[in-house]
Amino acid sequence: MNYLKNAWYCAGWSSDIGREPISKTFLEESIVMYRREDGTPVALSNRCPHRFAPLCEGKLKGDNIECPYHGLQYDANGTCILNPHGRGIIPKAAQLRSYPLVEREGTLWIWMGDAENIDEEQIVGTPFLVQKDQYASTTGYLKVKVNYQLFVDNLLDLTHAPYLHPDTLAGATEESMAPGKMTVEFVQGERDIQSNYFVRDMPATPQLAVFWENSAPGDFRALMHWHAPATLVLEVSLTETGKPKEEGVIVPVMHFMTPETATTSHYFFAIGHNRDIDDTEKTRVISEYAIRAFADEDEPMVEACQELMGGVLDLFALQPVLLETDVAAVKARRLLDEMILAEVNTPA
């Protein structure tokens, strides 16, 4: 399967990586990650070029990683610096690939493409994770048995919420979703798509009700922003009718989909809230709502859809029926296809 290589993918949360080497597969490539003694994160190819042993099972010697099979050592740039056998000659091919790994606002980002094409301005910020005086937040991770683009489709069309998430994330009813009640806006940029929903006089969702002081309906907004290839930023809010968004409950949610293989993905997510930020119980409750929705509702449904696609990963090849609300997901798929094709056809 072709992936967009010249792009940033979430490799985990800052707390996931320490001095103990760990491995994850990104875009079908096995990666070993650890921190140098000064705390700088490192990402290298996980396979020792000698006998293809997994370096993640090796030991760190200072900033170097030692192969667990024959003891060859590689520095943080992937260069073999020690062959403990024979005359100690180091073959020229004893080199690991080094992947740029950047740490921003509690999030780790890996660049899987050509190093000369790196553009750190493309990294999506996660400011609420570090704005401790404005938001309380939690992070999480799921390994999902679905193609990453199917999950992106799911997130770009939030009209499934009343049917799939009635007891967790949904507040809209069939009446509030009727023509004229819900406003949906789609905006396309050079590398991004926005899918924004607005519903007036909607009851609080079960998740937002944790912070909603009364039972009266309010103005609901769900602003979803997709950044190619698979980073999605959602801001959900509820305000008193007619009031500006800033006066209401705001729950930012990050959805970072990183392909593992063609049919499995890493799903990193973060949830914040701007009300009662010192109330750890409320933070726990809204996080549980989100995890239930992601793990027990979204993932099983999208996995079931993938299974019934019979191994066909090209959604359009199956000629799906398209609805008006599929606009954002369709535009994102087509934009990503164009970007991948352009990358593949760019001379090396």
TrEMBL record:
Residues 8-110 form the Rieske domain. Pfam families: Rieske, VanA_C. The keyword Secreted does not apply. One of its GO terms (molecular function) is dioxygenase activity. Keywords: 2Fe-2S, Dioxygenase, Iron, Iron-sulfur, Metal-binding, Oxidoreductase. Gene3D superfamilies: Naphthalene 1,2-dioxygenase Alpha Subunit, Chain A, domain 1, Rieske [2Fe-2S] iron-sulphur domain. InterPro entries: Cholesterol_7-desaturase (IPR050584), Rieske_2Fe-2S (IPR017941), Rieske_2Fe-2S_sf (IPR036922), VanA_C_cat (IPR044043). PROSITE patterns: RIESKE (PS51296). This is Aromatic ring-hydroxylating dioxygenase subunit alpha. It comes from Oceanobacter antarcticus. The lineage of its organism: Bacteria, Pseudomonadati, Pseudomonadota, Gammaproteobacteria, Oceanospirillales.
